[in-house]
Amino acid sequence: MATSKWQKTALLVVDMQKDFLDPEGSLFVRGGPSVIPAVKKAVSIAREKGAFIVWVVREHHVTGRDVEHFRRHLYDGKSGPTSKGTDGAALVDDLIPLPGEHVLVKSRFSAFFATNLDLVLRRVGIEHIAVAGVQTPNCIRATAFDAIAHDYPSVVVLSDATAAASDEVHAANLFDLRNVSIATPTLDEWASE
After folding, report:
1. Annotated active-site positions, please?
2. Where in this chain does the record put each Isochorismatase-like domain (predicted)?
3. pLDDT surpassing 80 at residue 1
């Protein structure tokens, strides 16, 4: 029996954490809360179709020793954005990884940078990558560009299940993604493939 495209597809759910999505979060992305329902729907579709789901979360040490230089000032040795074990590092309510789904911790924009993501995806036979989450010009874009650099034959960014600080920033980044052959379908278009 032939393997379906969906069995060779991974949905990367990126940074759907409280520090990014709660208005009180230290790195709040204004457009983020509006895509939570679409991200939940993307996860539901991926589960229903048998795709591999990777929950990509950002975590840092409270000292900031593993954070980008430009953000180190946000860490005081006792707290900081998405510090491991804090409420801000937790996924938003109702986004819960199920047994068998992969949770990947990253400390930079790209889910591929200094992680074993490529190894895990290759091990389970992934050829198609779909990306959902926040935020489009940073972690979404870096992850999608790195998927292209790793030669995945099909990379998509779900246009209505990703967000940025503004619609204009989001649209500009989707335009740039399309220029390097990254498709930007809506969630419904992706689900009907």
Report:
1. 15, 106, 139
2. 9-179
3. no
The pLDDT tens digits for 88-125 are 999 998 999 999 999 999 999 999 999 999 999 999 99
Angle, CA of 88, 92 and 93, to the nearest 5° = 130
The structure tokens 């920033």 sit at 169
DSSP letter string over 127-146?
A: -EEEEEEE-IIIIIHHHHHH
| Domain definitions of the chain by residue range | 5-58+92-191
Beta bridge partner(s), residue 183: 156
Q: 């009907």: which residue's tokens?
A: 192
| pTM exceeding 0.90 | yes
- The per-residue pLDDT for range 20-33, each reduced to its tens digit, is 999 999 999 999 99
Judge contact between 85 and 78, C-beta under 8 A.
Answer: no
The sheet carrying 9-14 orders its strands as 102-106, 52-58, 9-14, 128-134, 154-163
**5-58+92-191 in CATH: which number?**
3.40.50.850
**Amino acid identity, position 96:** I
Separation of alpha carbons 12 and 109, rounded Å: 13
pLDDT given at position 2: 54
